[in-house]
Amino acid sequence: MEQVRVLPKKATEDKFNELHNLVTEDFLRRVRSGEASTQDLKAACDWLKTNDITGVAYTGSPLDKLNKILPTVDPELVKRRMYGTKASR
Fold first, then answer.
1. What DSSP state is assigned to residue 60?
2. Which range of residues forms the domain containing residue 61?
């Protein structure tokens, strides 16, 4: 006689919350310990984006400090260097 396979129930919201917490805690542990690879940091950034987590660069915050050291990009300069200057009409 053939056995009928019973499909498991869908995971509960509590299970999803537990998984979410475990993944978040693992990212935090890796970053805090200094063992996070470039791939780990990228995955953590993607995790934040996926979960709609954004930051505000208030004065003196780590995000503000990062913002201050990043170079600014002039889109018009990039276009000119990539495609040359447009002829005046």
1. T
2. 13-83
User: What pLDDT digit, counting tens, does each position of 44-82 carry?
Assistant: 999 999 989 888 889 999 888 888 888 888 999 999 999
Question: How many Cα neighbours within 13 Å face the side chain of 33?
Answer: 10
Report the C-alpha dihedral over residues 29, 31, 35, 39, rounded to 10 degrees.
Answer: 120
| Residues 27/40, Cβ–Cβ less than 8 Å | yes
Q: Contacts from 55-61 at CB under 8 Å and sequence distance 24+?
A: none
Note whether residue 6 is domain-resident. Answer: no
Specify the pTM.
Answer: 0.57
Our count of domains for the chain comes to 1
